[in-house]
Amino acid sequence: MQTTVTLLAATGIDLDAYFANFDANFSLSGFGAFSNMSTFSGDYMGTSGDAEALAFLVDGDLGYQFSNHHVDGTIDTISFGTDGDAVLNTETGLFDLSLGSTDFTIDFTPDLATADGDDVHGLVYDLMSDGTAPEGNTSTLVSLLDLTGVDLVGSAGNDRFNGTSADDHMTGGWGRDVFYGGQGADVLVGNIGNDRLFGGAGDDKLYGGRGNDLLRGGAGDDILAGGKGADTFVFRGSDLGVDRINDFTVGLDFIRLSASDFSGFEDLSISEQGGNAYIDLGDGDGILLAGVDADSLSAGDFQFV
Ligand SMILES: [Ca+2]
Ligand SMILES: [Ca+2]
Asked: Is this entry keyworded Cell cycle (predicted)?
């Protein structure tokens, strides 16, 4: 299954903070609304009372049984935002459900389906009400994202995303994005803006894009590319693996090392390896600078912090 999270809020989204705020403040108004209110089926929207308050919209084909308060069916997309509205369509006899403002959407391909063993009930019922105060929580949704990994599409603003333990793929839009891959083989693309990318554990691929970016692959053998701008590549801690920087520009980009591990440029072991510069960090760890002449590197290309 592919799970795509598309961030839409103009100012950017910190998804973990958003979920925490939803869990703390969402309180279902009434029973919410189904697109077919005579059979309690179709799409479903939960609102939190007044117009500016939190709301979520489930686009799919759900069914609600009052006898046991059980939800089943399929989910295509869940949208989070504010200003939910249900308007009776006199032609179809169904309610048109919409959010006045959408902060982000989560698309499932293929659709989540009760028939496929997916926890459609848990997901929707937790969002509506888990039966205990405070009503509404994102725990089932978050654990589902962690199961599949996430394909994140950033907004025009400053986004922040902590990746799941699975393989994630994050692409920032404009803005100063901060992405953490976490575990798994992640692909992080900063795109436009001065971004900060942290691969975490696993063999990750980090691409800064335009702007002055900071890239830190973390553990594992990572592949890094800063893109345009003056980029800083950070190598700190143990178990760094053998990383490769594909576009290190001498005199423009920086390699940042720990001052507690290296006293200065003279302390580094730099050699030529098949037309590339190789910096030996000890313990089998190292940095390969693709296409860089080892002799061209000087103290000005390094930071010891
Ligand atoms: Ca991950
Ligand atoms: Ca890594």
From this structure: no
Mean pLDDT score of the chain, rounded to an integer? 94
- Tell me the residue range of the domain where 41 lies: 15-229
Q: What is the token pair recorded at 190? A: 């900063």
Q: Has residue 32 been placed in a domain?
A: yes
Burial (Cβ within 10 Å: 0-12, 13-18, ≥19) of residue 235: buried
Give tens-digit pLDDT for 151-181: 999 999 999 999 999 999 999 999 999 999 9
Question: Which tokens is 161 given?
Answer: 């995303």
- Where is 16: in which H helix or E strand? helix 15-25
- Under the banding of pLDDT at 50, 70 and 90, the label for residue 27 is confident
Cα-to-centroid distance, 276 and ligand 1 (Å): 30
What's the first-to-final CA gap in the chain, in angstroms?
Answer: 42
19 Cα: distance to centroid of ligand 2 (angstroms) = 26
Structure tokens belonging to residue 65: 């049984």
